[in-house]
Amino acid sequence: xxxxxxxxxxxxxxxxxxxxxxxxxxxxxxxxxxxxxxxxxxxxxxxxxxxxxxxxxxxxxxxxxxxxxxxxxxxxxxxxxxxxxxxxxxxxxxxxxxxxxxxxxxxxxxxxxxxxxxxxxxxxxxxxxxxxxxxxxxxxxxxxxxxxxxxxxxxxxxxxxxxxxxxxxxxxxxxxxxxxxxxxxxxxxxxxxxxxxxxxxxxxxxxxxxxxxxxxxxxxxxxxxxxxxxxxxxxxxxxxxxxxxxxxxxxxxxxxxxxxxxxxxxxxxxxxxxxxxxxxxxxxxxxxxxxxxxxxxxxxxxxxxxxxxxxxxxxxxxxxxxxxxxxxxxxxxxxxxx
Length: 338
Description:
By secondary structure, this protein is α/β, with parallel strands linked by helices. It has twelve helices and twelve strands.
């Protein structure tokens, strides 16, 4: 029954993988009724805890795996570079894994930990829940997350304050005189997209501008998605004067749509993105963008994770919240009168 995994037991028992782990480890945090149900399922499924895996985890492969949602998205390049440079300086190799925006693939790559293909795994903006990730940490597997905070003491995280990031964008646009601002979000389940929308709404309220749900569209963090989302917005409403795209890929999609529709930037529409990728400097006009310290987000997590694998000198450090900075360029530099 070697193919039975802890997550299979959890599904059958209708509990989280973390709860199964607690039962196996004799934790007193699980009530007697739940413990009895889990143990019954363990017996029925003939589940055998992976003690051999625990022994293997004491050995080192000197390899980290990095799981990204889409390897073609520019956002990941600087993060991966930061991870690789730090890992190489500490004599570790890096394996890049493309989840292709599929939750199932993220789970598949987590098996690298169980099979001891790698010593640790860094997940960049994963779609898996905190509870799912925490269940692996509680089983003793090393993993880290970039792009959001996970509430587990053994999972180091690096991220930016996405609420403040979005507020800074809206402050800039309202200072330019904009009162009708559209927002292009990313994946509906992505934490960074959710937080940026939250900051967007907060900043509008503070500026005395009513939030309009009709001015929000999902662009899936891709150039094509931004292109299609902007066209949907224009078909519903034509009087917005600015667009805040939750990443630069979608902002480039807005540029493509504007070129086709004869909309002049910034004369008729201001555009601001996030990440300040290199391509934003090669379009005309250049795109204003919130610059996240992507290289540092990757570098600091790789250092922390490798340290955790070894002597854990940074044991008191788990969360690394870094600041983003608005880089104002031509795409949003035109004051308008109301």
